[in-house]
Amino acid sequence: APAPAPAGAAAAASAVPGNGPPGIPRGEKYRPGHGPRAAHRRRGGLKVLSRIGRLLVISILCACRQPAQNKPASSYADVVAGVGFNIPEAWRSVPPKSSMRAREYRVEEDGELAVFFFGPGQGGTESQNLTRWTAQFTAAGGKTSPAQTDVFKAAGLEITTAYIEGTYAADMPAMGPQKAQPGHAMLGAIVKGPQGLVFFKLLGPKATILKNRTLFESFARGMGAGQRTPP
Q: In whole angstroms, what is the distance from residue 171 CA to residue 134 CA?
């Protein structure tokens, strides 16, 4: 029987050049990760990465070339003449007092918000309505109360807002003489909507109106041209 290999012979054999894995020529020292198989694996990995890169570029180019899609119309809780709005939860919807009012809401216990739309081209201009509103209020000494106004755009609609305070007496001949109400105020919004001007008028005691002023301004800036949210 052949004599067993001396101790350490196996380790010495592995260090002899050419005794590494198959494919390493004799006389060359084996270095892990540098053989033909390792090189083949690296080339395969590079090919996969190259294909992924090409696919990403194609996807980006296709996305850029797609035509812009028309955005759907915004949805709102309520819409009057194409003007959409969302009434704050604290304001309660009530039946309108007259046919002239498209909507009516109760604000607190002593304030009311009325919404008007008189038809395309009807109801006067923004300036005419601001003049009419200020004429309904008088300051101390019987002078007309000035209006604090602001004009801005919300969702593409031009909106004019106004705040007026003083003694209120509505100038509405059809409703007969109106009793003067001191210590009142009004927040108004005139919206240039798709079908014409839509008017929002929040009226009540000054304390109630001031308490809801920030809420009203947020309400006005949240308006836009849209459609009613499906139930």
A: 11
Looking at residue 216, its pLDDT comes to 98
Span 142-153, average pLDDT:
92
Q: What is the rounded CA–CA span in Å between residue 24 and residue 30?
A: 7
Q: In angstroms, rounded to a whole number, what is the distance separating the alpha carbons of residues 169 and 179?
A: 6
Which residues contact residue 91 at a Cβ distance below 8 angstroms, ignoring those fewer than 6 apart?
Answer: 105, 106, 107, 113
DSSP state, 108?
Answer: T
The closest of 228, 230, 189 to 212, measured between CA atoms, is 189
Three-class secondary structure of residue 229 per DSSP: coil
Query: Which tokens hold the place of 81?
Result: 């003449």
3-state secondary structure (DSSP) of residue 71: coil
Q: 32: which 2 tokens? A: 């892990």
Q: From the CB of residue 139, how many other CB atoms can be counted at a distance below 10 Å?
A: 13
- Both tokens of 93, joined, read 């919807």
CA 189 → CA 5, 43, 80, distances in Å?
A: 103, 69, 14
Q: What is the Cβ-side half-sphere exposure of residue 187, based on CA atoms within 13 angstroms? A: 22
pLDDT at position 142 is 83
Strand partners, 197: 192
| 62 pLDDT above the threshold of 60 | no
3-state secondary structure of 104: strand
Average pLDDT over residues 50-65: 59
